From TrEMBL:
Residues 31-202 form the 3'-5' exonuclease domain. GO terms for molecular function: 3'-5' exonuclease activity; nucleic acid binding. This is 3'-5' exonuclease domain-containing protein. PANTHER family: 3'-5' EXONUCLEASE DOMAIN-CONTAINING PROTEIN, EXONUCLEASE MUT-7 HOMOLOG. Pfam families: DNA_pol_A_exo1. One of its GO terms (biological process) is nucleobase-containing compound metabolic process. It comes from the Bacteria.
Length: 222
């Protein structure tokens, strides 16, 4: 998919975004829901070889004032061909800790500040987490941009965001097909946006410097 020249892309209204062709998510057979440590161990080698993950989390919503979230209940990692949806338990979180803390594996997504805070509260020090939210100044957006607007700007596609699904119960044992599709799409779309922003040199100078340090470290390791 080709990207319009940023300088000539006007600010998009919600109506304009909805009128775009639909975003194409990964096929269901390329979305892996992981519920057990054995399933984690089965993909451990392939996860270790991945340099950049699309990243997101989902948590059961809180509705009462002062109610503390027990999330994340789902952690999503995506590659160009596969999405891994980890239903969080103590042992799965322990399995993911080395990936989340790995300084040489990029985790890219939108609005990751709260995710980082939650992980730190659970004894995980996340590293190499790249928040893309403020990378759209060249399009005229000075504030944070979400996944839906980013996909519209970069790919001229409509990324559906269902409030009903986003506020559903993510702690259930068996996720619905709608939840699975939604969760995979968030992480997959983030990866596509990162690749486009990086290739077009549209990331902020600070993020580019951080990424180049990580990539240089990988080269040195190799």
């Amino acid at each position: 998919m080709q990207m319009d020249t940023p300088q000539h892309t006007p600010l998009l209204s919600k109506e304009q975004i909805r009128a775009l062709p639909a975003f194409q998510n990964l096929a269901p057979e390329n979305i892996l829901v992981i519920q057990t440590l054995n399933q984690c161990l089965a993909v451990q080698t392939e996860l270790a070889s991945i340099q950049v993950f699309g990243f997101d989390t989902e948590s059961k919503p809180t509705f009462k004032a002062g109610e503390k979230s027990t999330g994340p209940h789902l952690i999503q990692l995506a590659t160009p061909n596969q999405a891994y949806l980890f239903q969080v338990s103590a042992e799965i979180l322990a399995f993911l800790k080395p990936i989340l803390e790995n300084e040489q594996q990029l985790k890219v997504g939108f609005g990751l500040k709260n995710d980082a805070h939650i992980f730190r509260s659970k004894g995980i020090q996340p590293n190499a987490m790249i928040d893309l939210s403020k990378s759209f100044a060249s399009f005229g957006y000075r504030s944070q941009v979400g996944t839906q607007t980013a996909i519209a700007l970069l790919f001229q596609r409509y990324f559906t965001k269902s409030k009903k699904v986003s506020t559903s119960n993510w702690s259930v044992k068996n996720l619905s097909p709608q939840q699975i599709n939604y969760a995979a799409a968030d992480a997959y779309a983030a990866l596509l946006c990162f690749e486009q922003l990086y290739q077009q040199q549209l990331l902020t100078t600070q993020l580019l410097q951080q990424i180049r340090r990580i990539l240089a470290g990988l080269a040195d390791k190799a």
